[in-house]
Every structure is written in structure tokens, then in C-alpha cells.
Specification:
This protein has 768 residues and is an alpha+beta fold. Among the domains are: 230 residues, Methylamine Dehydrogenase, Chain H (7 Propeller); 103 residues, no CATH class. A four-stranded antiparallel β-sheet has the order 1-52-51-50. A hairpin with a 5-residue loop joins strand 44 and strand 45. This is Transducin beta like 3.
């Protein structure tokens, strides 16, 4: 089928992964502006801003979800609260828990914060109480009662000499607590819905509060009165830039950042988004976090994306995707396959740079993107979605930025599958992709519920796989012409999920919900081979190794490598916990990317040559060691020979050395001397070998000789410290008893023979 010199692949290894690191909840940035802390179920993940990598993951031992956390202002202490009502103090740089204590709250903690000195910790509970903790002396200093409902917001006044704490609960008021008297000295009333955030001016004289009632209030903290109310049409979060307020809009313009002059209540700047946001746009903001030292601003969106903007231009600097949800498709992108484009259970497309993990979020579709494909040159790709549209995107090879260059909206229903011609767009873009994207495919969809499409390497054939358990082969004519049905492939027992042409031979492969993969002839439409091994639906397949092998992914979360010639499953790759929807290989055929419904994206590297080189080096090393062992035995250097044989893990060779020692001059003493000079790990191996040798009558004497030396010179306590010593010694007992019984019978028989010999008289001997 292919070049006989072709190297079959035998294994892939994980080279990198893109995992969810933020699933909602609190986000905090370290004081040095190098790390982002965010919650993800039972973990607090620490994201390094420069590299985009998770450098620390702090997880609860009790596997309970983290409800809140706080990082001290000196970046030294991290405290987490879980549903188990435990507070844990962490040395987050070493990922070690230094202290844990009961939270005293009767219900989970909803909010917490440190004071400016990093010595006091305030926790607000769902029971309406606030407790203050001295993290240095380790005791509870205050128990503040009086809030109504969940205390979802606590903040210390920036001037620690005032010893004031601000809190907000479900009653929509902002309570001011005097920590000297432990009394609520004032309730600031202005909002009619829960307060979402508080921000103080640098001098501490004023404060701005925002709520879900679509207003921001500027407070004079000296007189404790509202200085001005700014209607901002529902804002979730805000932060202060000198005397101005930056707001994240949720109602009129989702995701738009606006700057308001607090003194005049006038909007002085509004951010311009690349595309007009539709209703319910996922760019809606939930948090704004300032990075004053580097003049940046971090925003957290409703879809758990974290975006960093450079001030004062508000240009996007970095984008991090906290949670991908269910990943539906993935493809390599770029001239050297340096990026991947990902379609998730969302209207957004995400383009990741594999080197830095930075992300470019693409907006354009208004409903879930279902399928992707990339043209041969790698800089153009297409997407289709439930919004009945198809979009063509282009990546700039220098900057890596992606923009939409064309759009098609002729479909009457959701577009579920898409494919590109193998030759790529060589002229007008729509002319070349119209046989795949235009009305002829719409006509096919009416009679054939398509799950997958593929174009042959010569761009003359199109194959479609559908839920009706059939794969159909079509002839592609001139652009805009109707498709001609050439044949039907029948044999699957359930719907066909994926179809692919071989890059080298006149065959195609199909995968089905019946758990099988079939190879078909394009000449007579007959089934050539069937591959069975998945326990569930086979969702995707690709040809690798120039069409001589297949990679398949299934609903069981497994990826399997098959050799077509032998029908053998060479390797099973297990890195996902749910359906693997996405599977794609680079043009060099040296890497593979998989994407799953578990929100994980894994990049695999072909390690066949590396493993073969390692195996060859190992074999050469074994040969050299065997030769060295032979030389040591010849020179009667038994200690080195025994150590080398043990390092090779060859029990038979070790036994040969033991026999050689025992058969030599003064064998017992030489054996004792040699065994006692071994290291502990070598003695552990000897004990393991003896347990095996003792099961055979031919080698039991050698085993007993070694055991005698060890039992004579090692105390029971020392022996029991050896790995598996108890099991090995227990295994010696029954076989040793059996050998003793056998030796006893032999001794009795030999004594009987000796007696008979003494009593025998030689026939014909002369009498005396």
C-alpha cells in the first residue's frame, strides 16, 4: 500500500495540555502583578501572567469545593475556605498547608479579605456573621453580628489606623464596622439590590460602590453621606483610576469598558469592540482588577475568560481562557502548525499559541460553532455554526492575529459539518469552496443527515457520512454544479460519525456509533477491513504514516493507533475523561491534538524514534554489561559480578554467580563475605530472587545458603524494613518445609541402603 521503508508509529506522548483553570468565583492578582489566583472547584490555581502557564495548583485534601480565598497584600499568605467549614493557610509558593482550623461559621464562607498589614483576615459567612482572625497569633479577634443574609462582600479601609471594616449582605446596605468597639457605626443606604463591589480613593476619603440596581454611588466617608449617584445601566464591577471610574457594562453594551468622571457623572470614554455584540453576549464582565504598577486592567468575562488591557489606550494585551466547556472540534493552524483553533460549546472561536498558551478570542458567530477545517497552506480556515452561517478566517503569519474575511448565510438550518478542498483557495475564495459550502450541499442535507464531509486529495470526489448508517460518494464537478452520486457504502449498524479519504490509496475510512472503523474500496464500494476495539462510538478518525495507520477517538475517552496492514491496535492513549470530539494531525505528521468534552485539549508528540533509540541504547548497554559480567566471573571478582547481575535484574545470572561462589575454594565463607557487602537495595533484590529459587529443587540449596547468611547476620527488625520482606519470607516457609520433608525421606532411604549393605553377604564367600 505504501513505501516499504516507511516507519510505523508505535507511541505518542503528551507534550502539552490546555486545561480549565477557572470555573467562576473569585479572582485576585498578586501585589507584584506577576500572578493571577482563581478558583476551579477544589483548587486554587496560580497563573503566571508572562507565560500563561499554571505554576501552582493548591488543592483541598478533603476534595470539597473552595467557596472563597484571599491572598495577603504582601503576597506571602494564602487562605482558603471550603464547604467543609475549614480554613486553611498555605505557603502557596511551596504548595504546602501550614495551618488549618475550624471556621466557627455554621455555614460556608462567602467572602474574605486581608487588611493592609496582612495580619488580620475578615471572613463573611452565609449565616450573616463576620469574623476577624489574627493570622499571626492564630485566634479569632472579632465576631460581628447584625448583617441580614449572606455576607458576600468584605473590605478593610485602606487606612489601617482607622480600624474600619466595610461589608455588604443581602439587605443591600453597606455596613461600616468600628473594630475597636466591634460595633456597626453606620449603614450606608443607597442601593436597592446587592452591592457587587467597593473601591476606595488613594487618600481614603471617598468610596465608590456599585450594584445590580444599575447605579454607582460616590460616598464621602468623613460625613458618611452619598456625594453623587451615577446611573450606569447595570454594572457588576468597577475600579478607580484617580478620580475616574472604569465600568464593565452588562445591559446596553455587553463587555464594553467605559470611563466616567465621578465629579460630573459624565461618560468620558467608551471602548470600541471589534464587532457589535449580540444580545446575551458572552463578553459581559463580572470583575475588573487594576494592575496599577504596569498601567494595566484585567477583566473577567461571563464565559470565564480573563483579558488584560493596556492603559490608557485600552488595547488588548493578553487573553486567557479559564474554561473551554465542551470542546467540539480542534485543528492545527499556522505556517508551522504553531497554533490551534478550537470550537467549544460557544459562539466564540479560540486560537491558542502553543508556545505561550496565549489566546485570541474570535467573535462573529452568534450561536454554537459546530465544525472547523483548515486549508492546506494553514493560514486560512473555515467554521460553521448553529447560526446557519459559514465564516472564512485568515491568520496573519507575522502577528498571528486572525480576522474574518468572508461569510456565507445561505443555509436554512444549522451547518453541522464543513470541509475544505485539498488544493486550497488558488483564486476567488468562494469559487473554490462553493462545491463544499454552497447550495449543492444543502440539497444533500435534505435527503442525507450529514455528520461528516471529506474531499479527496485530487478534489474530484466528496464523501459524506450520516446518521442513516450510510456513507455516500459524490463526484465534484465545476464550481456551482450539482453533485453526482457515485455509490453508497453500507455495513455500519449505527450512524456514521466520521469519514476520511486515504492520502495515498483509493480507499476511505469511516467510523460509526457501532464502535467500529471500516476501510472501503473506492472501486467497488466493498468493505476491505473492519477495526474493532472501542467500547463506544468512534467519533473521529485520521490517517497517519502516509495512510498506513489510523488514529481514532471515541466516546470512551480513548485514542487508538491502528496499523492497517495487520488490523492491530498498536497503542491506546488515555488522557481524557469524556468524549473525544476533536482529532487532528500536523502536516509533518509528528504531532496530534485531541479535544474532549471534559474541557481538556491535549497535544501529543510522536515518540516512536525516541523510544526506538532508547531501546537500542538499552540493548547495547545490556550487551556491554553481559560482557563485563563474563569477564568479572572469569577473574573471580564475585562482588562486582553479583552487583552487576542484580543491576541487570537477571535472576538466572545472579544464580550462576552464587553457584560459582559456592563451588569455589572456601565457598561458604566467600558467599557470606560477598552477600554482607551488598547494599540494602541489592539485598532486597536477593531476598526476592531467593523466594523464587526456593520453589525449585535444583536451586533451593543456593537459596537456602543465601537466606542462612541473611538470617544469621541481620536482625528481624532490619529484615522487615526491606521492601516486601514479610511476603517473601512467608513464601519461603511452605517450600522450605517441603524440601525438608524430601530431604528427610532421602535420608531414611539412604540409611536403609547402608543397613542392607552392612548385612549383605557375598554369595560364595568361604566360611571361616
Amino acid at each position: 500500500m505504501a513505501n516499504s521503508n516507511l516507519q510505523f508509529k508505535t507511541n505518542y506522548a503528551v507534550s502539552s495540555t490546555i486545561e480549565p483553570f477557572y470555573k467562576g468565583g473569585k479572582v485576585q492578582i498578586s501585589k507584584d502583578e506577576k500572578y493571577i489566583f482563581c478558583t476551579c472547584g477544589t483548587r486554587v490555581n496560580v497563573l503566571q501572567i508572562v507565560t500563561g502557564k499554571i505554576v501552582h495548583s493548591i488543592e483541598q485534601d478533603d476534595q470539597e469545593d473552595i467557596t472563597s480565598f484571599a491572598l495577603s497584600l504582601d503576597d506571602e499568605i494564602l487562605v482558603t475556605a471550603s464547604k467543609a467549614l475549614l480554613l486553611k493557610q498555605w505557603d502557596w509558593k511551596q504548595t504546602q498547608c501550614t495551618r488549618s482550623w475550624r471556621a466557627i461559621h455554621n455555614v460556608p464562607i462567602a467572602s474574605m479579605t486581608f487588611d493592609p498589614t496582612s495580619t488580620l483576615l475578615a471572613t463573611g459567612g452565609c449565616d450573616g456573621t463576620i469574623k476577624l482572625w489574627d493570622v499571626v497569633k492564630q485566634y479569632c479577634t472579632h465576631n460581628l453580628k447584625g448583617s441580614s443574609g449572606v455576607v458576600h462582600l468584605v473590605e478593610f479601609h485602606p487606612d489601617i489606623s482607622l480600624l474600619q471594616l466595610f461589608s455588604s449582605a443581602s439587605d443591600c446596605g453597606i455596613r461600616v464596622w468600628d473594630l475597636r468597639s466591634s460595633q456597626c457605626v453606620c449603614v450606608l443606604q443607597s442601593h436597592y439590590s446587592p452591592v457587587t463591589s467597593l473601591a476606595f480613593t488613594p487618600d481614603g476619603a471617598s468610596m465608590v460602590s456599585s450594584g445590580r440596581d444599575k447605579i454607582c454611588t460616590v460616598w464621602d466617608l468623613k460625613s458618611r453621606t452619598a456625594r453623587r449617584t451615577v446611573p450606569v445601566y447595570e454594572v457588576n464591577s468597577h475600579t478607580l483610576l484617580s478620580s475616574r471610574v472604569v465600568l464593565g457594562w452588562d445591559s446596553l453594551s455587553p463587555g464594553v469598558l467605559r470611563v466616567w468622571d465621578a465629579s460630573s457623572a459624565r461618560c468620558v470614554f467608551a471602548q470600541t469592540l471589534p464587532s457589535a455584540p449580540p444580545a446575551g453576549d458572552p463578553r459581559s464582565l463580572t470583575y475588573l482588577l487594576p494592575l496599577p504598577s504596569s498601567l494595566r486592567l484585567a477583566t473577567v468575562t461571563a464565559e470565564h475568560n480573563i483579558l488584560l488591557y493596556q492603559l490608557p489606550s485600552f488595547t488588548t494585551q493578553q487573553q486567557f481562557v479559564g474554561f473551554n466547556d465542551e470542546v467540539l472540534d480542534v485543528k492545527f493552524l499556522g505556517k508551522g502548525d504553531t497554533h490551534i483553533v478550537v470550537a467549544t460549546n460557544s459562539s466564540q472561536l479560540k486560537v491558542f499559541d502553543l508556545a505561550t498558551s496565549s489566546c485570541n478570542i474570535l467573535y462573529g458567530h452568534t450561536d454554537t460553532v459546530l465544525s472547523l477545517d483548515v486549508f492546506k497552506k494553514g493560514s486560512l480556515f473555515v467554521s460553521c455554526a448553529k447560526d446557519k452561517s459559514v465564516r472564512v478566517w485568515r491568520q496573519d503569519p507575522d502577528s498571528g492575529q486572525v480576522c474574518c474575511v468572508a461569510q456565507g448565510c445561505s443555509h436554512a438550518n444549522a451547518v453541522g459539518s464543513i470541509t475544505c478542498s485539498s488544493s486550497g483557495p488558488g483564486g476567488p475564495l468562494w469559487m473554490h469552496i462553493s462545491p463544499v459550502l454552497g447550495m449543492p450541499i444543502s440539497n444533500v442535507l435534505i435527503i442525507h443527515d450529514v455528520n461528516s464531509l471529506a474531499v479527496s486529495p485530487n478534489d474530484k470526489l466528496l464523501v459524506s457520512g450520516s446518521q442513516d448508517r450510510l456513507a455516500k460518494l459524490w463526484s465534484l464537478g465545476a464550481p456551482g454544479a450539482d453533485l453526482a452520486l457515485l455509490g453508497v457504502f453500507r455495513g455500519h449498524r449505527r450512524g456514521v460519525w466520521c469519514v476520511q479519504f486515504s492520502p495515498m490509496d483509493q480507499v476511505l475510512a469511516s467510523s460509526s456509533a457501532d464502535g467500529s472503523v471500516k476501510l472501503w474500496s473506492l472501486q467497488d464500494f466493498s468493505c476491505l477491513k473492519t477495526f474493532e476495539g472501542h467500547d463506544a462510538s468512534v467519533l473521529k478518525l485520521i490517517f497517519v504514516s502516509r495512510g498506513t495507520q489510523l488514529l481514532t477517538s471515541g466516546s470512551d475517552g480513548l485514542v487508538k493507533l491502528w496499523t492497517i496492514k495487520t488490523n492491530e491496535c498498536v497503542k491506546t492513549l488515555d488522557a481524557h475523561q469524556d468524549k473525544v470530539w476533536g482529532l487532528h494531525a500536523t502536516r509533518k505528521d509528528d504531532r496530534v491534538v485531541t479535544a474532549s468534552a471534559d474541557s481538556n485539549i491535549t497535544v501529543w508528540t510522536d515518540v516512536t524514534e525516541v523510544e526506538q533509540a532508547e531501546e537500542q541504547a538499552k540493548q547495547e548497554d545490556q550487551i556491554l554489561k553481559k560482557q563485563e559480567l563474563s569477564n568479572l566471573l572469569h577473574e573471580k571478582k564475585y562482588l562486582k559480578a553479583l552487583g552487576l547481575a542484580i543491576s541487570l535484574d537477571q535472576p538466572h545470572t545472579v544464580l550462576k554467580v552464587i553457584k560459582a561462589i559456592r563451588q569455589g575454594e572456601d565457598g561458604a565463607k566467600q558467599l557470606e563475605k560477598t552477600v554482607l557487602k551488598l547494599r540494602q537495595d541489592q539485598k532486597e533484590s536477593m531476598l526476592r530472587y531467593c523466594a523464587v529459587w526456593n520453589t525449585n529443587a535444583r536451586s533451593c540449596l543456593d537459596a537456602q545458603a543465601v537466606i542462612q547468611v541473611m538470617l544469621t547476620h541481620l536482625s528481624p527488625e532490619e529484615l522487615l524494613q526491606y521492601q516486601g520482606a514479610r511476603a517473601h519470607l512467608e513464601g519461603l516457609i511452605p517450600y522450605t518445609e517441603r524440601h525438608m520433608q524430601r530431604i528427610g525421606r532421602l535420608l531414611q532411604a539412604s540409611m536403609f541402603l547402608d543397613y542392607m549393605w552392612q548385612k549383605m553377604r557375598v554369595t560364595g564367600a568361604p566360611a571361616r
